[in-house]
Write a structure and sequence with these properties.
Elements lengths: L5 E7 L7 H5 L4 E6 L2 H10 L4 E5 L8 H8 L8 E5 L4 H10 L2 E4 L4 H34 L3 E5 L5 E4 L1 H7 L3 H5 L12 H12 L5 E9 L5 E13 L3 E11 L2
Parallel strand pairs: 1-2, 1-3, 3-4, 4-5
Antiparallel strand pairs: 6-7, 6-10, 8-9, 9-10
Length: 247
């Protein structure tokens, strides 16, 4: 087998799922089995898995040693699928509480494969989104010009530290203000005309200069690049402003 294989840990103390390896391993999975809570704990401690499968009979509960092995190991965020033959109320309550995937007998090998693959890919996509958001947040916070986002009425929804520094205000003071009201009275119509162009979708971005006034009366002459962000085809979501202090 060439290429990466997703390691999967299968815990089956009473239900035998060993036959699944014959189907899964040619499909880029690497199966590891544990028949006892002790063996399961050791494997969780020693290796990071792409997914964990817990095979539980209808008269069993999810055992604390098994759950603790997951919670206190390298696999605390690993997606988990529970295989069972029945779903009594006490068991359903546990699954809902822990947010585990469930597959019930009878099922085909191919159904199990697709459910397992979907669960792993969903987790990987969530992690990718989280990583991208962290990267965006880092860039947003460290950018050497001011970046803000506002509602259509000018209420702040997000500000970066550079804009806070430009205005000489705390983030709490800014969030209690309105961006449009911070514009110099003589410059408000300049900004309003440009933003109306964005709302009419005449252009994707607009550029202009204006004076911003903080709550101490200090005036900052700024170059501004503004864009409108849309949620879907028609619904306005927010304005984004890039602000450079020039005087």
């Amino acid at each position: 087998m060439n290429g990466y294989q997703d390691p999967v840990l299968i815990y089956s103390s009473e239900l035998d799922l060993s036959h699944l390896s014959d189907f899964l391993e040619p499909e880029s999975f690497l199966c590891s089995f544990a028949a006892s809570a002790e063996e399961f704990s050791a494997k969780c401690r020693d290796e990071k898995f792409s997914a964990i499968v817990l095979a539980i009979s209808s008269n069993q509960k999810l055992e604390d040693p098994v759950l603790n092995s997951i919670s206190w190991s390298r696999n605390m965020f690993t997606p988990i699928m529970v295989v069972t033959s029945m779903l009594p109320d006490h068991f359903a309550d546990q699954l809902i509480r822990y947010g585990f995937e469930t597959i019930m007998f009878p099922f085909s090998d191919r159904e199990f494969f697709f459910r397992l693959r979907k669960m792993i890919r969903q987790k990987q996509n969530e992690e990718a989104v989280h990583t991208n958001l962290l990267s965006y947040r880092t860039l947003f916070d460290s950018f050497p010009v001011g970046i803000i986002q506002t509602s259509q009425k000018g209420d702040f929804t997000s500000v970066n530290p550079t804009f806070i520094e430009i205005m000489g205000m705390s983030d709490q003071e800014l969030y209690n203000e309105n961006f449009f009201r911070m514009s110099h009275p003589d410059d408000y119509l300049i900004m309003r005309k440009q933003l109306d162009r964005l709302l009419r979708r005449e252009c994707r971005i607009v550029k202009f200069e204006m004076r911003l006034i903080n709550n101490d009366g200090k005036r900052n002459v700024c170059k501004i690049v503004a864009a409108a962000i849309w949620d879907g085809a028609e619904s306005f979501d927010r304005f984004t402003f890039v602000i450079e202090n020039i005087a």
